[in-house]
Design goal:
The protein has nine helices and ten strands. By secondary structure, it is α+β, with helices and mostly antiparallel strands. Helix 4 packs across helix 9 and helix 8 runs antiparallel to helix 9.
């Protein structure tokens, strides 16, 4: 699968086959995860990721560590850390989603966990340092052919199979003028990949305003009040923004659309939206 096909294909997996991932696939994913054979994150944050094997842990102990029974059958986890700083959450989400898409291409299932896992247990495994945050983890393994009852319940409660329509997400020049699919031009597939991005509780907090006729796309966050108060210093919806930015940039690259990320608030009429970053397209 190419990147755009992979984005369309990816679904969160909470129920895994208990067989371990084959050694060759683990080695390939581990090299991708830990050696970062890809560009740095958009804002240069120091993010590190590890592929860990919890196979020797008792099932009850692992259950307590991993989302209180939400995840079943997984023994491998991708654990990420990032130095605290401006745009650190966006960079973290961007990098983690690159790994998730790589795993999806390999036929492996994942599920980004931001608020429902025991951070202290994972922090010990990666020797979390001073000034570092552990925003999220994801199990990785072969998807089970039948979802558990808890898995089905979570998907139903979050509405995981539903996505907001274009008219609620993408705009032209200001936040009250809808951007049609055709008006997005050669970036239409890129915005559709943004629309399909995963997010905490499927809240889909990203909004994008295309400016004029230029290839400038301004990414905004529609924050859910009070949603992130429980996890100090870790902003799940900013991680979601990084995931959306990753989908946009990778799909743009696949379409041959060059550009860069920058932070320069254009001062557009955006209501209660919080400006995050801008993609500025340019000719190759």
């Amino acid at each position: 699968m190419n990147i755009i096909e992979t984005i369309h294909h990816r679904k969160s997996c909470r129920t895994f086959d208990t067989r371990p991932v084959d050694p060759e696939s683990l080695d390939e994913l581990g090299r991708f995860t830990e050696s970062r054979p890809r560009p740095s994150p958009p804002f240069g944050s120091a993010a590190d990721f590890h592929l860990l094997d919890f196979g020797d842990m008792e099932s009850g102990e692992l259950k307590k560590l991993t989302t209180y029974g939400v995840i079943k059958g997984a023994r491998h986890f991708i654990v990420g850390t990032v130095k605290s700083g401006p745009k650190a959450m966006e960079d973290f989400g961007y990098c983690l989603e690159e790994i998730v898409l790589k795993a999806t291409m390999m036929g492996l299932g994942t599920c980004i966990l931001g608020g429902t896992f025991k951070r202290s247990g994972f922090a010990e495994k990666v020797n979390l340092g001073e000034g570092e945050l552990l925003p999220a983890v994801t199990p990785v393994g072969y998807p089970h052919d039948k979802r558990s009852m808890v898995d089905r319940m979570f998907r139903t409660l979050a509405g995981s199979d539903n996505r907001k329509p274009w008219k609620e997400l993408f705009f032209h020049d200001h936040s009250s003028r809808e951007l049609d699919y055709d008006d997005a031009g050669e970036y239409s597939d890129c915005l559709e990949c943004v629309r399909l991005a995963p997010s905490a509780s499927n809240r889909q907090p990203w909004r994008v305003i295309k400016e004029g006729r230029a290839d400038a796309f301004h990414f905004y966050l529609k924050r859910t009040p009070g949603y992130e108060n429980a996890v100090k210093d870790i902003k799940l919806q900013n991680i979601d923004m990084g995931i959306a930015m990753c989908h946009f940039a990778l799909s743009a690259g696949e379409r041959g659309l060059a550009g860069i990320w920058d932070v320069h608030d254009p001062g557009l009429e955006a209501g209660d939206l919080e400006y995050i970053a801008t993609w500025s397209g340019h000719s190759n």
